[in-house]
TrEMBL record:
Protein name: TonB-dependent receptor
Annotated source species: Sulfidibacter corallicola
Entry-linked InterPro entries: Beta-barrel_TonB (IPR000531), Beta-barrel_TonB_sf (IPR036942), Plug_dom (IPR012910), Plug_dom_sf (IPR037066), TonB-dep_rcpt-like (IPR039426)
Keywords, comma-separated and alphabetical: Cell outer membrane, Ion transport, Iron, Iron transport, Membrane, Receptor, Signal, TonB box, Transmembrane, Transmembrane beta strand, Transport
Taxonomic lineage: Bacteria, Pseudomonadati, Acidobacteriota, Holophagae, Acanthopleuribacterales
Domain of life: Bacteria
Length: 736
């Protein structure tokens, strides 16, 4: 098995750190001890595009987060472009919005973005839909432009902003961003001294403490920052406790005027109780209290997450930039979660919900290195060019099993029943009777990638961005599947080579208005569960849009129309066999508006229309009969959704805000049998700021509206998780 990418990552990082250290004497002359680090380049000071989107640009990001309307992004093309001149649908949610809404996790933030619907997966990690495509197999989550194993909650305690790029992103980030990319921009060390403490409390037993402390040794070119988080909550639904602990120290070392290294480490421990939701009965969720849980008392989810990063940047006096990013992410996940198998009559005429418990032992590691070179020139045609090499190694070892109760003469099947309408739990111990065989996998994916992005500006009106990435993916896996009672071992060894192009064009008749178009493709390697020689999944998009910037950049509006298609979707049928039986198409219209208005008013608004269709879908049902579901809609994709957030800041320090969010009807599964009704939620908040103190109280779901989010689906039972009822979150913070 080849391990070259991981080893080369370490070698490259050590070499670059040695190079930085060896040049310290030459770049830091005597007498510079009290001199602060060099400011941003002239291009950055002027707010124009620059070829160095790492730490120097971060200073601009920090300044933007103090306002409502961000003007730049780096995730859209890897180049630091203004949002107005980026030929793609990009929405940036700054820290200011998260603070005023007391957002806790990524799912809270994504409510502010058109065409994105946020849910959870079993209630234990973030899960979202982008333009009708689910995130686990069609989107990529990045932390500071490095890929994440997407099976955890992403907490807001250490984030400056969230960048959402809709559409294929493989030309920048390789496999998996078939429909969208979410980049989490973390807080970085600053040459400043401050400490910020926050305490949050609220409904459902919520208690949270957060720390943000920054220090500096300017004469040594050092800055360091520590972010910490502790949270406990009981959850809206019965027996849904959670506890989160996270710690994120980082160090920034500026070596003279041209070299910089940033070290970043983050560890997190998350304990949640899984949630399978409310089962559907005759087309509607069970008529019980929405807080009712049918989960076994031994359900658990324990996740340990580690993120390690070393970023190095050399900015040459001639204007070119060399950047190296080494990353290591690890996820250790132990879980046991209830699933529903059927609803059946009980011996006394009641309805029983039959259950099993699924056990997962999953260990994922992502390691890699991104080496980038960028340069710019000005002339008749201004140009910014970036070329990069990425080496990546991903391993995933998991063991998935199902357990039930020991069959008896009175109940000869292993399913654990519970009364559907009057639940009373009798199974207090963890089930140990195996149901079927295990699903085992030990896989390694190694990627060698070359990518390039070229930004050409013709005068003041036209921008052309051309990007492409070549990925060579070597995949090896030893797997074992239970297929109808037969344990089938298999060995997979394959190589995929893919080129992912991007073409974007911007026409700006003036500073305030721009029109754009883009065309792009993306790919995703076949799943571990694909036993046959499956082809990579592919997506293709065409998009047209317009952007408007008014009030000196304090109002930004955008609209986009698109068609996004995905082919060769791997869909497990009702027997568990996985095949490439699906294609999906989404067509839609999106609008986003963010504004900081005179008189202390601020506004966020979004609207989306999505026409999503499974253009090809066939599968075996639970009785072995082929069914053609072509023409059905994907699960949990509303045709229409909209949101509005309005805030008023007063000169005396008071703040009032409120919002409304509407989501249309959605099917609960691809079978299109059960429907989750449309809902409209109203929120409000009041805050006060005085000197270094800040207080905020938010009231969410003022009408205590019943609504449903994504749950679990099995061959005979659909389920959905009720969203939180009326909720209060109060936060008190001090900065000194």
């Amino acid at each position: 098995m080849r391990t070259v990418p991981a080893r080369r990552s370490i070698v490259i990082s050590l070499f670059l750190c040695w190079m930085a250290l060896s040049t310290t004497a030459g770049d830091a002359p005597e007498g510079a001890a009290d001199t602060p680090p060099a400011p941003a380049t002239e291009a950055e000071a002027a707010g124009t595009e620059s070829p160095a989107p790492m730490v120097d640009d971060y200073l601009r990001v920090v300044e933007e987060n103090r306002t409502l309307v961000p003007k730049t992004n780096t995730a859209g093309t890897r180049l630091p472009l203004t949002v107005q001149r980026t030929p793609a649908s990009v929405v940036v949610v700054p820290e200011k919005v998260n603070d005023e809404q007391t957002n806790l996790v990524l799912g809270d933030v994504l409510h502010n973005v058109s065409g994105v619907q946020s849910h959870t997966n079993f209630g234990v990690h973030d899960y979202f839909m982008v333009r009708g495509f689910e995130s686990l197999t069609a989107s990529t989550v990045l932390t500071d432009l490095a890929p994440e194993p997407e099976a955890t909650f992403y907490h807001m305690y250490n984030l400056e902003r969230v960048e959402v790029i809709k559409g294929p992103g493989a030309f920048s980030y390789g496999a998996n961003p078939l429909a969208g990319t979410v980049n989490l921009v973390r807080k970085q060390p600053l040459f400043d001294r401050f400490t910020q403490l926050e305490a949050t409390g609220g409904s459902f037993g919520l208690g949270q403490l957060a720390l943000d402390a920054n220090g500096t040794a300017t004469h040594r070119g050092l800055a360091f920052r520590i972010n910490g988080l502790w949270r406990e909550a009981d959850g809206y639904r019965d027996d849904k406790d959670q506890e989160v602990r996270a710690f994120n120290p980082s160090i920034r070392w500026q070596i003279g005027a041209h070299h910089e290294v940033v070290f970043n480490a983050e560890i997190a421990r998350a304990e949640y109780t899984p949630d399978a939701g409310l089962p559907f009965l005759q087309g509607a969720p069970a008529d019980v209290d929405p807080e009712t849980s049918y989960a076994l008392p031994t359900d658990l989810s324990e996740q340990d997450v580690t993120r390690l990063r070393v970023d190095y940047q050399y900015r040459a006096p001639a204007g070119w930039v060399l950047r190296n990013r080494t990353y290591f992410n690890e996820l250790d996940w132990q879980s046991a979660g209830t699933i529903y198998t059927a609803v059946a009559p009980g011996p006394t005429g009641s309805l029983n919900l039959l259950r099993l418990q699924t056990h997962l032992d999953d260990h994922q590691k992502f390691s890699g290195n991104q080496l980038e070179f960028s340069w710019s020139r000005q002339g008749a045609v201004d140009q910014v060019f970036l070329v990069g090499l990425e080496l990546r190694r991903e391993t995933d070892v998991f063991d998935l099993r199902q357990f039930g109760a020991q069959p008896s003469a009175n109940f000869p099947v292993p399913f654990m029943p519970i009364d559907l309408l009057q639940p009373q739990e009798f199974y207090t111990a963890a089930p140990t009777y195996p149901v079927g065989g295990p699903t085992l996998s030990d896989s390694t994916r190694e990627t060698l990638a070359l990518y390039a992005v070229d930004h050409l500006r013709f005068g003041s009106r036209w921008d052309l961005i051309i990007g492409a990435r070549f990925d060579r993916v070597d995949y090896e896996a030893d797997i074992s599947l239970d297929l109808g009672g037969l344990q089938v071992p298999a060995r997979i060894d394959r190589r995929d080579e893919e080129v992912s192009p991007f073409l974007g064009l911007v026409f700006a008749p003036n500073e305030r208005l721009s029109f754009y178009m883009n065309a792009a493709t993306a790919f995703a390697p076949p799943s571990t569960l694909a036993l046959d020689q499956a082809e990579p999944e592919e997506s293709e998009q065409n998009e047209f849009g317009a952007k408007l910037s008014l009030l000196d950049g304090r109002l930004s509006a955008s609209t986009a129309i698109y068609q996004l298609e995905r082919q060769n979707i791997l869909i497990p049928d009702e027997t568990g066999v996985t095949g490439q039986n699906g294609d999906q198409r989404s067509r839609g219209l999106e609008m986003d508006l963010i504004a900081s208005l005179d008189g202390g008013w601020s506004l966020l608004a979004n609207f989306a229309f999505i026409d999503a269709e499974l253009t090809r879908l066939s599968q075996l049902d639970a009785f072995g009969i082929w069914e053609d579901l072509s023409g059905n809609e994907p699960a949990f994709v509303p045709e229409r959704s909209a949101g509005l957030w309005l805030a008023k800041a007063f000169d005396n320090g008071w703040l009032l805000n409120g919002g409304v969010r509407h989501v249309g009807d959605r099917y609960v599964s691809v079978l299109n049998r059960d429907v989750a009704d449309a809902f409209t939620l109203f929120d409000a908040g009041i805050g006060y700021r005085h000197k270094q103190w800040q207080a905020m109280v938010n009231f969410k779901n003022l009408g205590d509206e019943f609504y449903l989010t994504r749950g679990t689906n099995t061959p005979l039972v659909s389920a959905a998780i009720p969203g939180n009822g009326f909720e209060t979150r109060a936060r008190l913070g001090v900065k000194f």
